[in-house]
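Title: Request for sanity check on Saccharopine dehydrogenase NADP binding domain-containing protein prediction

Description:
We are preparing a figure and want to confirm that the structure record we downloaded matches what your pipeline produces today. Could someone re-run it with the sequence below and paste the raw structure tokens into this thread? We only need the token string, no images.
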Amino acid sequence: MEGEKLDAIIFGATGFTGQIVVGDAIDILKDFKWGIAGRNELKLKTLLEDMGQKMQIDLSYIPVVVANVNDQISIETMAQKCKIVINCCGPYQVFGEVVVKACINAGTHHVDLSGEPQFFNGMQLKYDDLAQEKGSYVISNCAFESIPCELGVLYAEKNFPGVINSIELHAVIKPNYQDTSSKAILNYGTWESLICSMQYARELLTLERKLNKEEMPKLTPKLWMRPYPHRTETLSEYFAPFPITDRTVVQRSQRLFYMREQKRPIQFEMYMGFRSFFLALIFPLLLILGVIMAQMSFTRKLLLKYPHTFSRGLMTHQGPTETNRKAAEFSYVVNAKGWPEGTPQTDAPNKVVMVRVSGKDPCYGVTSSCLLTSAKVILQEHQIMPGKGGVLPPGFAFAPTQLLKEMEMCKSGLKFEILKL
């Protein structure tokens, strides 16, 4: 296969999430030529050997590429060997830019599972024009953050018989512990990315001001974030504001729909569910405390050294057990309000459509399926995606494609339902 360009390369294949992605790629990318990459050739080959024995198949045909983020030439060489890089190597704020830049310069597409707003906003500011010139699509957040959320908005709009003014999304994640030896739901790599994102939180406002220079329409009625714990129809949990990655990504997609297609943007807010009023009440305070601690070197080191303590066991170096990981489930209830077709948009919104997006193993199974399926769709449908390339959020990038349909068909995919029409 020397000299022949691969369709895809999974970079960071030996990490916790990377290994899951490699296992799922055997099915999702079965019609494509793909390889794996990382800094240690022996570990990469051992991964394929161990996975092959476990699955009782021969994986020795999968090419192995040595690439290290500290060796720019190796990253550039990797980018030149494929049509798309599936990047599983975070934190992206630290390790992501060298891969994005190499992909764009090579005219190669790039997807990642970043949940770091500073990273993807920064990449858009720096490289969007160059990516368009080179014909490279760079799509971040192609994971549990933020594909289910973005597709939930698109699904609600697809089934709304008119114009949507606003959407409130209420999210519930249930661990469903089968193995009581551990209550971890996330591994250390995710925790490290979260702390990194908190560390650079102050940069986010600066980046958003630079990105969002264009005047947006004055939408009425205005959707305000509810700062207090509340409950909602069809769900028993108490909900608190969740103004993190998904909200930023959806709002960026809606801004691009307006700027490039003159489409009325949908106002969007997101809330996270908790089993008690007290937990919903203190959650925003804990987020603020985490951001403060991440600013100072000493307390940041404590957060990174003791993830089990500071997350109350939800995040550990070992990560969740496979049994607990696969038993976890999530549900997003998307409540869309607007006007029926033909109704003046100056009147109060009088139409409500409620849809649900759900699935199992959200943090890793859904993440892996979202990432691989996003790459698959880019390979198959990049000709119908917006423009000729660019650094784009997934909702805007994949709106014309079959990503929603593809995600419904995945083994660890998504279920879309209409609750109220």
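Thanks, this matches our download. Residues 241 and 284 are 7 Å apart (CA to CA).
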